[in-house]
Design goal:
The protein is of the alpha/beta class. It has helices spanning 15-34, 65-75, 104-135, 153-162, 180-186, 189-199, 212-221, 233-243, 260-264, 275-278; strands spanning 49-56, 60-61, 80-83, 90-91, 95-103, 141-143, 176-178, 205-209, 225-229, 248-252, 270-272, 285-292. The chain folds into two domains: 15-130 and 281-292, Alpha-Beta Complex (Aldehyde Oxidoreductase, domain 3); 131-278, Aldolase class I (TIM Barrel). It starts with 14 loop residues before the first helix and ends with a strand.
């Protein structure tokens, strides 16, 4: 049976993919927010200028700068946008991280869309960093999942990487993840893995298993990565012994900040956590005008 050679399931998203996502995300966000026009901004004289600052009301890992810049550029390319910190920097509560200068109407029209990206992506990066810090004494890599906010998968996966964790497959097209129903439909783990290698040679093949017997089947079938679904800590340790490097092992299922460290210390290679992207609470940001001309 085929043995794993260059396992590469976790990966960084290509810059071209990120650029396409920014363009698409920003276009949709501005369309749904502005529609036929910002009628409230029309209360302000057309040529009035202003300066404004944006603060975070809580600690955070800053993320989403490129998305916000694209919003400001699309609304008014003449706006002066000054970031006082860089992508991935740590921010303290009440810290000013962004200054804006230019047409008052433009600043107000762009505000919500730009901050929506920053507050959501910073929340994702902050949560990812919290998990990363807990296990940095081990060699384990924490993976995200496909449990992302609809339409914002690339943005959130970028934020996960900024926070110090690792991207799993982006979608259904770049890696196999063979689960129970796939196995039933194919007849066996061996058949499913063999078919995967035939359909898309070179694509990572991961198999989800629910027992040590299924683990052995996946190893014998030549799976690149084996997902240990809701295994106990003792079963994870046994899986590491049985695998002996024949495949990468990924722990999955109801992982929390309380269970993360013991799982990491079993010796598994990866831990996937859906909460990284699906359970985020937006960072509280606030923009204030400084003066108008």
């Amino acid at each position: 049976m085929r043995r794993p050679t260059n396992v590469r399931a976790p990966h960084m998203i290509e810059q071209s993919t990120i650029a396409e996502a920014i363009k698409s995300n920003v276009s949709l966000a501005l369309s749904e927010d502005i529609g036929s026009g910002d009628i409230t901004a029309m209360l302000i004289p057309e040529n009035q200028r202003a300066t404004a600052t944006v603060i975070t009301r809580e600690t955070a890992i800053l993320c989403g700068i490129d998305w916000a810049n694209a919003v400001f550029e699309a609304v008014d390319s003449s706006l002066k946008v000054t970031w006082h910190y860089s992508e991935g920097d740590s921010l303290e509560a009440n810290q000013t991280f962004l200054s804006l200068e230019g047409n008052a109407r433009s600043i107000l029209t762009a505000e919500r869309c730009a901050l929506n990206f920053v507050q959501t992506m910073s929340a994702t990066a902050t949560l990812a960093n919290n998990y990363h810090q807990l296990v940095k004494h081990t060699d384990v890599k924490i993976l995200d999942t496909r449990k992302t906010l609809p339409g914002l998968r690339i943005a959130q996966k970028h934020a996960v990487a900024v926070g110090g964790c690792t991207n799993h497959r982006v979608g259904l097209y770049d890696a196999f993840l063979i689960k129970e129903n796939h196995i039933i439909a194919c007849g066996s783990i061996e058949n499913a893995v063999s078919n995967a290698h035939t359909i898309a040679p070179g694509k990572p093949v991961e198999v989800e298993v629910e027992s040590l017997d299924e683990l052995k089947q996946a190893l014998d079938a030549g799976a690149d990565i084996i997902m240990l679904d809701n295994f106990s800590l003792d079963m994870m340790r046994k899986s590491v012994e049985l695998s002996r490097g024949r495949a990468k092992l990924e722990a999955s299922g109801n992982v929390t900040d309380k269970t993360l460290v013991p799982i990491a210390e079993t010796g598994v290679d990866y831990i996937s956590i859906g909460a990284l992207t699906k359970d985020v609470k937006a960072i509280d940001l606030s923009m204030r005008f400084q003066h108008q001309e």
